[in-house]
Amino acid sequence: MRAIMERLGFTTELYGKCEQDVYHKEPVSNFEMHRALFGPNVDGRVRGYWRDVGGRLLGDGCGKRLGPEDFYLYLCAHGHKHYTISGTGLRSLLDVYVYLSKVDLDMGYVAAEARKMGIAGFEEASRSLAVRLFSGRELAAADREMLGYFMSSGAYGTLGQQVQNAMAKSGGGRLRYALGRFLVPVSEGDERYEAFAARYPLFYEHRALLPLLPIYRAARSMKSGRFMAEARAIRDAREPGSVLPPGRMRGA
């Protein structure tokens, strides 16, 4: 796949580091080839639900595809991932509105499957907001609150939202979050272990090198400019660290 994309004039921006490879071609073409639908930073219920996606595919000539309801469920799960990690913009709401305006769905099936993933509340709230917003109907207070979060989250989220949401999830403040960024998981029981092992395979294949990983991560983030950007995001974060709308919108 990489050889094909590079022959077509794309440059490889990310390869073999996470659940997707990323290719870019000037001026605006961006292409992501996913190795998995969801990575280890996503809620286990969502990952488990989509792990055996082959069983949900329908025959379509020489290819396969998701059925209408399952495609919508994936659309919601993908939006929920961005929403809860670093935020997501109006594009996610527009996707929902356009799809629902073109396709009739079995919403009973959608609701039942969304509950299995733990995203039923998010699906219902984002669907309500999308329909009200783009059909010009009056928004309820909860809709306006959720819309504010979408509008402050850029296109696919912001570093500021990511820091704020991570603080909210951990229940800690700025200092706890900052110190935690220098810690690396060493036990497979740590929920971050799989993501770190995939991103830094050399260190986890040769575990004697793990004490050097925080130094490597800090040096690399300083070189890229992320270190200072995240430091500013931590400085500007609001304690106790909750900007997400009410819980019913985050999950079930």
Domain count: the total is 3
**Assembly state of the chains shown:** single chain
Average pLDDT, rounded to a whole number, is: 90
Q: Output the helix-strand order.
A: HEEEHEEHHHHHHHHHHHH
Q: What is the tally of beta strands? A: 5
Terminal Cα separation, in Å?
38 Å
Rg of Cα set: 20 Å
Number of helices: 14
Largest sheet: 3 strands, antiparallel
Percent in helix: 55-70%
Strand adjacency order, main sheet: 1-2-3
Strand content: 5-15%
Structural class: mainly alpha
Poorly predicted sequence stretches spanning 5 or more consecutive residues: none
Coarse shape? globular
SSE map:
Blueprint: H1 2-7, E1 11-14, E2 20-25, E3 29-34, H2 44-51, E4 57-60, E5 63-66, H3 68-85, H4 90-102, H5 107-117, H6 120-134, H7 141-151, H8 159-170, H9 174-180, H10 193-199, H11 201-205, H12 213-224, H13 226-236, H14 247-250
Antiparallel strand pairs: 1-2, 2-3, 4-5
Helix pairs in contact: 3-4, 3-5, 4-6, 5-6, 6-7, 8-13
Q: If you had to describe this structure to a student in words, what would you say it looks like?
A:
Strand 4 and strand 5 (63-66) form a beta hairpin. The chain has 3 domains: 1-35, no CATH class; 37-151, no CATH class; 159-243, no CATH class. It starts with a helix and ends with a helix. The strands form 2 sheets. The protein has a 3-stranded antiparallel sheet with strand order 1-2-3. It has 14 helices and 5 strands. 56% of the residues lie in helices and 10% in strands. The chain is mainly alpha-helical. The longest helix has 18 residues, at 68-85. Helix 5 crosses helix 6.
